[in-house]
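Job type: complex structure
Entries:
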Amino acid sequence: MRLTKFGLGMALSAVLATTAWAQQPVKIGLITTLSGPGGYIGADMRDAFQLAIDMEGGKLGGVPVQLVVEDDGFKPGQGKQIADRMMKTDGIRLFTGIIFSNIAGATVPDIVDGGGIYVSPNAGPSNFAGKECHKNYYVVSWQNDTLHESAGQNANLLGFKKVFILAPNYQAGKDALAGFKRFFKGEIAGEIYTRLDQTDYAPEMAQIRAAKPDAVYHFHPGGLGIAFTRQYQQAGLLGTIPMVVAAPSVDATLLKAVGDAAVGINGTTHWNTDFDNPANKKFMEAWTKKYGADRLPTYYAGQGYDTALAIGAALKGSGGDVKDTEKFRQAMLKADFQAVRGAFKFDKNQHPIQDWYATKVEKGPDGKPVIKTGAKVFSMQGDVYAKDCKM
Amino acid sequence: MTLALEQLLNGFQFGIMLFLLAAGLTLIFGIMNVINLAHGCLYMIGAYAAALVAARTGSFLLAIPAGLVAAGMAGLIIEFLVIRKLYDRDHLQQVLATFGLILFINEGVTMLFGRTPLFVSIPPALSGSIEIIPGIPYPTYRIAIMVVGLLVAGGLYLLVNKTRIGMLVRAGSTHREMVRALGVDIRLLYTIVFALGALLAGLAGLMAGPLLAVQVGMGEQILILTFVVVVIGGLGSIRGAFYGALIVGLTDTMLRAFLPGFFKTFMNASEADALGAGLSSMGIYLVMALVLLIRPQGLFHAQG
């Protein structure tokens, strides 16, 4: 009797073990920047991604997933180490989360060369978009240049003839200025590369004033942009020389920090909180419920959420198998999900084709500044590097 | 010409900021022989305390003592808990311990106040601009920073050269053993000096708040430059810190402002920008190397 009980127990535990094994969640390595000036960006990215998982009850595309979050500390070397460790010791094959292009540059090649999959929710550096494109590398956000091409186009539409441009001296900064100039038809009044560790822009303000441009375009993500905008206002330039910037230089966190100083800034974006589509309404509702109405999601959150949905669609199509990268790829490229930004397709270099809109910072009904979406700047725009990608 | 003047002002103001940080660092190093990497944390604590109080009360006047007190208190606590154990250890251990402090404090601030940068509004009285140079409206707040910095520099000069404490500080930095042998409570002196350094760092932090984003890691961004200032000025010398800070501030600003333009006169724009940006970020280190070549002790070494 006791023996049978024992045997039953054994059988039961064996059954339990197999079901547990069968439901072993797919681990997703989210390497992101949670410290330093861009820390809030990583936090938004992580929280939106987690929100998508929570909304499906711990699953993406019907497949149980487990998010493993690590902070890259804004250091390329650290990002690379984390990826190596996650691949070798935790057996993670599916990665996402990197914010900054310099960190992506150090980390992504290791992941895809090691047979892993990387789905970018933010950084889309040019050097991985053309000749160096890779079957297991997807970008859900944008190719870096496109952000700034839309700002250049917006400057044309707004009728600016002479623009002063600035960006930090790193890959994404160079991509930014190149992208802006590719579409802007007027004259460049001045071009400055700032330092990535710089927080005081007084010398640059003096140069802007001396050059007397029609408008200023700058690309300073995160805390850098907050400092820049504040000092732009303090130097008395905000009222006199309009700003025409890309999404990273005017996000919800910046508005919170800068307040009324941000009113009147022209931006461009592929997603905004006020987008009128069912997927976005659902997202905004869930976000507000979880994080409160006080914390407006930045567009990084919108991208993090869309990335989670894209991965979900791919997992659904591949039955949760991330080892069979080709099967995963076929499913991913269908982009079978409702993006919060609206229309979304993958180009042949596995970067997005999407719409871009002009935005302007205005005073909202409660007196706080909000980003309002305006006219379309680009329709279903891909990037210029896709044609060089041979897969 | 007016542009050059304005850039000089900018460089001067940057230098003043660096001086406030470097003064404390150099005192602590010169007198106690302690390398304190966590000095940037005191700057951050001052900035955070001021930003939080300003946000709560809406008054910058209240934020000033808040920042000073918080940084001073943090300095006292750090000295008592950590630095005190390090006076007789070698520099490597000091570096390790104070680096640990950085990680600890940064993580602590993140837990308490989150990762989103905070912002302090400029007090209304200082939010305008003054045409110091005709035709160039220079932000009043930056002028206020310069005035405060110069007052502090003057005050420190008087303190070090005209008071009993200052005498002990000077003596302590050159003949530590002798001061101890004469029965001075060197421990108390150390604590006072450390707290003073912390206060100055806190002052720099609370003044930087309205200009920059108050965020975790802000101290480390400026710490490296502060060390460069201390090395150029000579360890333990307040005067050296002052001149060193002005040299670094002006060099950095002027190179950033005029080097790309200078290169543009004989090469294409994007190359000139890249080269200019590269060289201007190296500039201060080149200056440091030059100074060390000519005067290995720095400009005004306390023990020399």
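Summary: The longest helix of chain A spans residues 2-22. Residues 209 and 291 of chain A are 41 Å apart (CA to CA).
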